Amino acid sequence: MSSLIINHKKNRRLWKRFGIMPWAVLLILCSGVAGWETAGGQETPLPSFGSGTIKVRLYTDYFCSPCRDMEPDLEPLLLDLVKGGTIHLTFIDVPASQHTASQHTTLYTRYFLSALAEKKDFDSALHTRRVLFEAAGKRVVDKNQLVNLIAEKGIGLKPVDLNPVFILWNRYLQEDQIRSTPSCVIVHGDLKETHVGGLEVIKALEILRDNFGKTPAGSSRDGKAANGKKNKDSSSPSLDKKGE
Fold this sequence. Notes:
Blueprint lengths: L1 H9 L1 H7 L4 H8 L17 E2 L4 E7 L4 H19 L3 E7 L8 H17 L3 H16 L5 H10 L10 H14 L6 E6 L2 E6 L1 H15 L8 H7 L17
Parallel strand pairs: 2-3
Antiparallel strand pairs: 1-3, 2-4, 4-5
Helix pairs in contact: 3-8, 4-6, 4-9, 5-6
């Protein structure tokens, strides 16, 4: 714990500048405030899905309007990429102070991970994210109201040890140098790219789907292909397949 506090002091100016607080330190600061529960010996509900070789880390904040706005377009893309075996996706919740008080994001993240501990499958994870984004849009910050809303949506919760998840997220935050949400980091072999902003994140994932995707039957990609729309100002990242 002492090393984490020292690290917090060394990087305080950086966090203030970019509005992002590393999660491992946030857990220490909020552990007595947000009502965190742990369950020793419980399986850690790491929010990672998919068997693909391309790693995708998605950084969002439930109280971030651009994050919430991109969700309807994001979900079908993630379904195609994860269920098609194209990517290995990790959700990372980031408390960005410019959007809301960090304890509110912390509370929401607690219930997202607790829901995964109860039922860890990709469809359930997307459903839980959808419910939490909707609640954040309505500014539901009371713990009891949030729990009731989650229960009404048929989402179960299970106490779980959250420390390993926050430590892992903190490492990713520092490695990827995340400064704002939404952000998406794509790692393919030795190549690593960061995309910032809803439009850029969606565009990057569409390129992955179109160039590397193995589309499940009846997926959203069929409708996209029929539509045939492309961004006129889009530039192809280096993850594009070339010479084919």
